[in-house]
Amino acid sequence: MLEKDIATMGKTREIIQKHGFTFKKSFGQNFLTDTNILTKIVDAADLGPDVGVIEIGPGIGALTEYIARRAKKVIAYEIDPRLIPILDETMVAYPNVKVIHQDILKADVGEMILAELADVKEIAVVANLPYYITTPILMGLIEKRLPIDRYVTMMQKEVAERLSAKPGTKDYNALSIAVQYFTDAKIALTVPKTVFIPAPNVDSAVVRLDRRQEPPVQVSDEGFLMDLVHGAFRQRRKTLHNNLASYFSHLPKAEVSALISKAGIEPSRRAETLSIQEFGQLSQVFQNV
Ligand code: SAM
Q1: For the CA of 104, the nearest atom of ligand 1
Q2: Ligand 1 atom nearest to 32, measured from its CA
Q3: Which of 70, 102, 158, 210 could lock onto 184 through a cystine, CB 3.0 to 4.6 A?
Q4: What is the model's pTM?
């Protein structure tokens, strides 16, 4: 028989009251209290006995126990010292959970994987992220090219829409390209505010990112590509030509225009209409100037 789930309103309130815990907004603390949503998150993560999971921000363990029941091992990073003794208690029935009291942004996750997850076949990050640092957490992990196969994470819906946006849509921006260069991004489910305590001010969504084996476009300098993408999106309403003319301000405007055409792209287009492949072509042409 399984213990009564942590993620019910009653059990969550009981744990919080017992420990005199108060929510800290600055840590992005909104705990999940809906077992259906938790089932959907772990379903979306394709967990199994060969999968090792990295969780960011276990809170009192609502999602952690759902992961622990299906995965081989869970390594959970929690920044708030007040939650460590609570997790010691709530996770007592799950010997495959290890809590690390550390700020994920300061953690050496690569070292941890070597030490703790050498014996798993696949690695997934599964988390209800602290929303104030969604982008630095995900980009930090993705750009390090760690052996993480997929990320199934809850975030603000607006951010989820940007990460998964396709060219030509209003949400498509430099972050969409940065994430989709490394991963295949899809929204797995959207989540109402009412399933959290306290309820956040924004709607949420769970995004699944699958690490790409190969980048969608071959470039000789990824840093140059990402900087160029930021330059191209600097002023969204302006044309590619205008944005790149200010970004490459050392080049004559006519030359910028000629180089964009040389990459096979019409200079009057806007950045938001370009695919990653087209940004790759631009990057190769401008890099050799
Ligand atoms: N997983 C729990 C749940 O779903 O109920 C809690 C999720 S809550 C949105 C975010 C959690 O991340 C909190 O427990 C918070 O203390 C923790 N957190 C915030 N910043 C963090 C950081 N930099 N490193 C690790 N954990 C962090």
Answers
A1: 24
A2: 5
A3: 210
A4: 0.95
